[in-house]
Request: fold
Amino acid sequence: MTPSTALTPHLRQGLKSLYVLVGDEPLLIQEMSDELRSHAIQKGYEERTSFTVSGAHFDWSQVLSATQSLGLFASLEQIDIHIPSGKPGRDGAQAIERLCALAKELMLEGESPQKLLLITLPKLDKATQSSSWFECLQDTAVVLQAPKVERHQLSSWIAQRLSLQGQSVKEGQEGTQTLQLFVDLVEGNLLAAHQEVQKLGLLYPKGELSHEQIKSAVMNVARFDVFKLSEAVLSGQFERVQKMLDGLQAEGESAVLVHYVISEDIRQLCRVKQAVDAGQALPMALRANRVWGAKEKLYERVLSKVPRTTLERLLQAAHRVDGVVKGLKSPMWAQDTWMAMGQFAFVCTRACSLSK
Reply:
């Protein structure tokens, strides 16, 4: 059974001339794209032209030419415009505003569009979301977000996908542990989770899956994300930090980058703490230091419990380990780069764990 997407209710109301998909979750973007294309083909849009905007010198005139070739004998056509960088450039911004104007004309005429446009964008920063071309898209198009499925949401997402193919885990604690195992094996990789769910559908019949069936079938396809490591440190999760450090080292990740990400959290915590101690409200201090989303709550918890002197000691430790990572020796720290990184990560994790 094909999963419904955020696009499904919009398609039930009839095809529009312009759709925009935004997000960094490739699987969800792909599923919405596939649903739109499949629905469009059923309505006669069998031809398809694709453009990928690569670099500032992309020729937008070819896109405009394709979209404006309307007329009595023009065929119904799908036109995909993929902008991987999320930055269309000056010419692109003007072209997108012209596409919006064309889409508005078709809506006013009340006719079914001859050209069905789909624009795909990555997750956009606040400045881009406030740009005139994106605001124009929001006013004109069906704009749908594909939000990141975070780790704490993944077990529910897996259970829902299993149910679509008639499978489930046991109820109660065993089922919870089974889903947690699944999450651990595919951490940070929604596409891998989707593929493993599909594999379970091929290996086993409909019905209840045991812990051992999932354990033996699901591959360890975890993608160890250095930025997720910083969240694990801030959450005080020792076992997860160790697992992710081992994974990052095995994958050949740069120790310099790993050190920078953890150290940057310590620097930001110090800056926010100083601002709060000086009388600034915590929400304003967090915004001023560009702390958003999941990290905002983690910072709030740590800052409410960890004293400023502890944060300053962690910052001093960051400076010393920075030297070790760059080949210098430092008393009290291992000389092996990754061992020193492990020591530093666990010192930070311990401080954050005390704030629970």
